[in-house]
Automatic annotation (TrEMBL):
<feature type="transmembrane region" description="Helical">
    <location>
        <begin position="15"/>
        <end position="37"/>
    </location>
</feature>
<feature type="transmembrane region" description="Helical">
    <location>
        <begin position="187"/>
        <end position="206"/>
    </location>
</feature>
<feature type="transmembrane region" description="Helical">
    <location>
        <begin position="298"/>
        <end position="320"/>
    </location>
</feature>
<feature type="transmembrane region" description="Helical">
    <location>
        <begin position="226"/>
        <end position="246"/>
    </location>
</feature>
<keyword id="KW-0812">Transmembrane</keyword>
<feature type="transmembrane region" description="Helical">
    <location>
        <begin position="91"/>
        <end position="113"/>
    </location>
</feature>
<feature type="transmembrane region" description="Helical">
    <location>
        <begin position="267"/>
        <end position="286"/>
    </location>
</feature>
<feature type="transmembrane region" description="Helical">
    <location>
        <begin position="120"/>
        <end position="141"/>
    </location>
</feature>
<keyword id="KW-0472">Membrane</keyword>
<feature type="transmembrane region" description="Helical">
    <location>
        <begin position="332"/>
        <end position="352"/>
    </location>
</feature>
<feature type="transmembrane region" description="Helical">
    <location>
        <begin position="147"/>
        <end position="167"/>
    </location>
</feature>
<feature type="transmembrane region" description="Helical">
    <location>
        <begin position="58"/>
        <end position="79"/>
    </location>
</feature>
<keyword id="KW-1133">Transmembrane helix</keyword>
<protein>
    <submittedName>
        <fullName>Membrane protein involved in the export of O-antigen and teichoic acid</fullName>
    </submittedName>
</protein>
Amino acid sequence: MLSIALLSRSMGEAALAHALIVLSFMAAAGPLTVLGFDTALLRARGARSLIVPLARRFALVWSVIAGLMGIAAVSFVPGDWLAAWLGVRPLLLVAWLALVAAQSFLSALLLALGRCRCALLFGGTLSSGVVCLAIAIFPAAGTGLSGLAAAQLAGLGLSIAAGMAVVRRAMAEAGPARPLSPNWGDIASGALTNAVAVVAGQLPLWMVAALGTQSQTVDLGLAMRLVLPLGFVLVAARAMAAPVLATARSGGWPAQAGGALCRIARVAALASVTMALCIVVLARPVTEALFARVPADAALLIGLLGVGSCLQAAIGPGQLALRIAGGEAEALVIAAGLLAGLAVGAGVGFLILGPAGVALAASTHLALGSAIPAWRFTRRSGVRLGAVGPCA
């Protein structure tokens, strides 16, 4: 939010629209670069010694990916064109992606080891804090993407180093490792599901950028950034639910798991509704204060996006639950089908209602993206997700 606010004050509308698109790709990097290993780690929670082989395989895979990307950036990619479009050098982008992958893996690993607070702290909170501190100390860092990239690299490096120290202490309690033959099919399905989810999360902005004007792109982009606090609630709820789901899976899905998941969903739903109402009411003064501009139909766009986030919080982490329960392939099929529906709905909605139609399609996708997997998870495990009904 601070980065966007500083960029909005120092850039024109065309440059800001471009920056919002680039930053949307940056926001998508975490779930994409973890390559499906996040769910594999959570499913290994009942046998912590399985974590070490998974970590070695992830490091090997990303060493190959980073090496190939580095060679391509130096030898084959038109570096000047890419640097001009991104605002950073290609090799800096490769280093940033590798560090984001390591941070995302560490966050999932800490969740698998039962360190929920550390997973949130070292999964992006600390690195974002370093970026904000760098911008506060060196204001020039917030005036362009290259300065933000340097601050991001510093924050990621510190977050990974601190996270590794916690992981070493946690692994000392997990016992010796034993050989593992991971199910690469599940990991591949998880990677594809993460990729589909990433595209779905950013597709509304990309759709408006392709079909609309720069002003409409800025309006929707700023509205999406204003509802980020609701995303924080969803991330926290997911972090709280993940150990419950993993433990329940290893214990044969006891009935008590449903009560714990219900309570988490109720707290998340209450927090989301409260925050959404506050954001809608304060949309105009906040956008004027932070961004020195007011998006057209700000309250409508924020309200539509907020409804989807609130419904997702109340329904619970359906896709995560289905994947932990062993339904990786099923989760992928559902996510791909919903992505196709989102693309059609966003296109039609934009032609009829403009950015508000895209926001409505995104809100519907958020709700269905949790509801359908949650229903399939309940059919598979007998454990109910969501805040509706008694939390027995």
